[in-house]
C-alpha cells in the first residue's frame, strides 16, 4: 500500500511538474509575444517620433521664414506709408498753392484798375497756347530768374501756371 501510495504520489508529482512546465511554457510564450508586440510598438513609436521631429523642424523653418517675410512686409508697409504721407503732403501743398493762385487770379479779375481787370479776364490767344505747348520748362529759366512758365497738357487741355 505504501508503494501504491508512493507510486500515486509520484504520478501526481510528475503530473504536477508537467502542468507546471506547461504553465511556465505558456507564460514564456505569452511573455515573448508581449515582448514582440512591445518591440513593434517601440519601433512604430520611434518612427512616429522621427516623423514628428521632422515635422517640427519643417514647421520651425516655416515659422522662421514667415517671420522674415512678415518683417519684410512691415518694412514695405512703413515705406509705403512714408511715400503715401509724402504724396498727401505734396497734394496738400499743391492744393494750397492752387487756392492761393486762384485767390490771386480772383483779385486780379476784381481789380480796380481796368487794364489789369481786362487783362485778367481775357482769354489767351490760341497761337500763344500753341507756342507754349511746345515750350520746355528747362528753356524758361536759363537766366536763373524766378520767372518760370510751366505748361501742362492734361486730357487735351493746356493750362498755364505763373
Descriptive account of the structure:
This protein is mostly helical and 162 residues long. The chain has helices at 2-109, 114-121, 126-133, 137-140; strands spanning 150-154, 157-161. It has a two-stranded antiparallel ribbon with strand order 1-2. The chain starts with a helix and ends with a strand.
Strand-helix topology:
Blueprint (H helix, E strand, L loop, with lengths): L1 H108 L4 H8 L4 H8 L3 H4 L9 E5 L2 E5 L1
Antiparallel strand pairs: 1-2
Radius of gyration: 51 Å
Give the quaternary arrangement of the chains: single chain
Helix content: over 70%
Low-confidence stretches: 148-162
Label the structural class. Answer: mainly alpha
Distance between the termini: 146 Å
Number of strands: 2
Mean pLDDT: 82
Keywords:
single chain, mainly alpha, two-stranded antiparallel ribbon, 2 strands, disordered C terminus
What's this entry about, in short?
The protein has 162 residues and is mainly alpha-helical. It has four helices and two strands; from the N terminus they run ααααββ.
Amino acid at each position: 500500500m505504501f508503494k501504491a501510495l508512493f507510486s500515486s504520489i509520484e504520478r501526481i508529482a510528475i503530473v504536477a511538474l508537467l502542468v507546471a512546465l506547461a504553465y511556465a511554457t505558456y507564460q514564456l510564450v505569452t511573455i515573448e509575444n508581449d515582448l514582440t508586440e512591445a518591440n513593434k510598438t517601440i519601433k512604430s513609436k520611434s518612427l512616429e517620433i522621427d516623423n514628428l521631429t521632422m515635422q517640427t523642424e519643417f514647421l520651425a523653418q516655416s515659422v522662421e521664414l514667415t517671420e522674415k517675410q512678415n518683417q519684410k512686409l512691415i518694412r514695405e508697409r512703413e515705406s509705403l506709408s512714408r511715400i503715401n504721407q509724402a504724396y498727401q503732403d505734396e497734394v496738400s501743398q499743391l492744393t494750397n498753392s492752387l487756392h492761393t493762385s486762384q485767390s490771386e487770379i480772383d483779385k486780379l479779375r476784381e481789380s480796380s484798375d481796368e487794364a489789369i481787370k481786362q487783362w485778367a479776364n481775357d482769354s489767351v490767344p490760341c497761337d500763344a497756347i500753341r507756342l507754349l505747348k511746345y515750350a520746355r520748362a528747362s528753356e524758361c529759366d536759363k537766366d536763373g530768374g524766378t520767372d518760370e512758365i510751366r505748361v501742362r497738357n492734361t486730357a487735351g487741355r493746356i493750362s498755364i501756371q505763373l
